[in-house]
């Protein structure tokens, strides 16, 4: 199997984020443009905004195809409106009217946009555009990116039912980042001993921060940090009181459950934290190569949501004072034992611009080393309570000292043991010096082995197990000499089997562990302590403590330990989501030093993965009373373990007559591959019919099971139902649901208590006749010099609903004063709300009038609505709404695209690539060791300049950035580059920052190369 790295692109500025073009068989998503519905502005977008996504669909084949549907998968924080009534020009015919496509929404947030019964015909090379309205959740985090995935399905035009071609495009939707400002009381520099005042501010674009935190991270030279003041803006409404806190090198302000009004002034949307700190010395750990940079302190301001960094800012401040640079060496030795002398040579150089007064060396490892004194310039310096006092060190002067230590007789033999010294001086508190490590008798880390796999099956070094099965893990190792308390920990985490990324802590069920500690002679020593379990962010821990403080025999020798754990996988959501459990062990000796265990034990979780689908045989036609409808319910197992005792239930509307003699029910099993492509393939497939299936038929339900055979992996259990509608049922819209109950246990461990109700699928395959009011048309008005607005409106109620009365209510987002008039008998009269009763089928003709502001600011948008409620003589209440969007012109538009090419020989030349011809094409067959070239282009397609551009691309951790890349090309005028990209942190982000005027028509391009790492 070939793996490709996951590459993501986020362009952060007032711009457009298009989807990445992809070539595929059939119809592909060639381009996507995102702009706000109110204001026609490109991203990034504020929380709570509504975005119009224009999808350009292209037939890339040499034959005509029929576009059947678009499948939409919406990430958390996105919702899609029904294109048939969202007020946008979806089909590109120049008019805003009811679209002729059907839109089905599922409970999991996904949706299907279908193009008629026969699909939408596209000739070779032809394109068509469709517009989709996306609503961004008001709780979207600033600076985050929401995911939208679009899959286009098409078949050859005029062909018999066949498997569709499918092409998927990922569309990132960027949320506006916070604006950070970091200021200080001194721009020219600080002197050691002075106080530093820092002020950090974050201006939020709007939305909700459930667990916000503003932090100031200080360098080591800034100590004794204190919160001076803090402020939460008036437009930031929080459910919890803000909590200021200083811990280690970080000062923070936590504020939770906060909602930010995006329309408020920037000051009212600002969170501010002021901190004071004492300057006591220079940063630690800098060697000679860092001497030139030691005076620059870096202060970091960060805005967080929980553990996720939303944005950060760094400020560098120069520092003046003494700067000790220390080098320490140990003589070469084969190994040390308790009681041996240890000599440390110390060299202290003052690289600052002030003398280092009254320096002192201190030994801080008193539990392991005895201090015997030092030799400085031929003079003995004793060890005292204040350490060893050294002579003053002038600027650029060096002081040499030889420190004599001795290992204590009861020192623990530990791989981390080594002399620990600290340096102090007048005005400088003690600073730990770089640690040294002695060559000592190291103890072995624990080795994790599987003593008894039980029912687990081992394949390619990975154990395959079902939830609830039991195996035995044996942990063995060596404990170092000494008298101390310690623990053995078994650690488990759940990992995504495809990407290797941790999903969360994996809950394990452990029996009482059997632990023993023995001397080399085989005698047991020490006592067992507590046994408990803990759960962290990524790990679950099972801790077995032991106590060797009272051991008198062989305390100076290694001890062997062994622990046996009876382990089973718990029924935990993290395990099911990850599908791969990793287990490791470690020992914790005398409370500080952890020795990690041997290789991972990987357990592949075998689980059923059942998903429900409902299909209609009747496409989109309206079913009348007395007619027959057909529906198919599928329960498909996408997992790798059978699902036992399935009980599939189909819940029908009240209008369905299940007791009719015309009702037909069929149960059968089909392969999953056939079930993926729609109803015709399933119906025509040669599936295994369940002739002896036991149906339970109720007033509104049809059930199959639970004595049905298990649903095997890669298969589907199906119920096909045909039934007429009742003649006497009134018209209504009728959804259809199904549900599935299945026992997840395996054959040897049936347990009814482990039955799980899988969430049902929901659809609307039936549409019954019902009264509908027509209201429209909706429209968008682009205002230039026009100030007075008049919009005609028609409202029609169909015949058969009786007489009716109407209530109308206009609303405006910017306070426009709408006045309603009615056109009647050739005259226009003011509308009197609910004043008279209208005849059945009568049409109201109205005019909405308003006056726009005299001055329209850039980006001004007004969203107005006219809500209507119709009350019929029969008691029915029918509601609808007319939507008007008024906006001023906008003048910015940035477009981007991203292309990838294969460079197998990694020489940077694409002309020699077979099948590529130097052209960027989708990469389908890359293997580890190959190289790929990534090129990101951007263009100012608007009429105004853009002043700041930030391009951010995320690459997989399973790739290596090649030297000599990235490259940047911008025309016609170059921009000032603010930062050079480099892989940043665990997410492997690359960033390019540019400043300067990016003029209309200007184009730019960044390019870099990656090598795919071995799996």
Structural account:
Helices cover 2% and strands 52% of the residues. It has 1015 residues and is an all-beta fold. The strands form 14 sheets. Strands 33, 34, 36, 37, 40, 41, 43, 44 and 45 form a 9-stranded mixed β-sheet that branches. Strands 13, 15, 17, 18, 19, 21 and 22 form a 7-stranded mixed β-sheet that branches. Strands 4, 6, 7, 8, 10 and 11 form a 6-stranded antiparallel β-sheet that branches. Strand 33 (457-459) and strand 34 form a beta hairpin.
Summarize the structure.
The protein is mainly beta. The protein is built from three helices and 73 strands. A hairpin with a 5-residue loop joins strand 6 and strand 7 (111-114).
Question: Segments where pLDDT lies below 50 for 5+ residues?
Answer: 1-24, 743-755, 759-766, 768-772
Q: Report the principal-axis shape.
A: globular
What percentage of amino acids are in beta strands?
A: over 45%
Give the helix level as a range of percent. under 10%
Overall pLDDT level:
77
Biggest sheet details: 9 strands, mixed
Strand count: 73
Class by SSE composition: mainly beta
User: End-to-end span in angstroms?
Assistant: 11 Å
Please describe the topology of this protein:
Layout: E1 8-12, E2 27-36, E3 50-59, E4 65-74, E5 78-80, E6 102-105, E7 111-114, E8 120-122, E9 127-136, E10 145-156, E11 165-174, E12 179-184, E13 190-191, E14 195-203, E15 207-217, E16 222-232, E17 236-238, E18 243-247, E19 250-260, E20 270-279, E21 296-305, E22 308-320, E23 324-329, E24 341-350, E25 360-363, E26 369-376, E27 379-381, E28 388-389, E29 398-407, E30 421-425, E31 428-432, E32 447-452, E33 457-459, E34 462-466, E35 470-479, E36 485-496, E37 502-505, E38 508-510, E39 514-518, E40 527-535, E41 540-547, E42 559-569, H1 573-578, E43 579-589, E44 593-596, E45 601-606, E46 610-616, E47 628-637, E48 644-651, E49 664-671, H2 672-675, H3 679-684, E50 688-689, E51 695-697, E52 701-704, E53 715-724, E54 733-743, E55 755-758, E56 762-767, E57 774-776, E58 779-782, E59 788-796, E60 804-812, E61 819-824, E62 827-830, E63 843-851, E64 861-872, E65 877-887, E66 894-903, E67 931-940, E68 946-954, E69 959-961, E70 967-971, E71 976-979, E72 989-998, E73 1003-1012
Parallel strand pairs: 13-22, 34-45, 58-65
Antiparallel strand pairs: 1-68, 2-3, 3-9, 4-7, 4-8, 4-10, 5-9, 6-7, 10-11, 12-14, 14-20, 15-19, 15-21, 16-20, 17-19, 18-19, 21-22, 23-24, 24-29, 25-28, 25-30, 26-27, 26-29, 30-31, 32-35, 33-34, 35-42, 36-37, 36-41, 36-43, 38-42, 39-42, 40-41, 43-44, 43-45, 46-47, 47-53, 48-52, 48-54, 49-50, ...
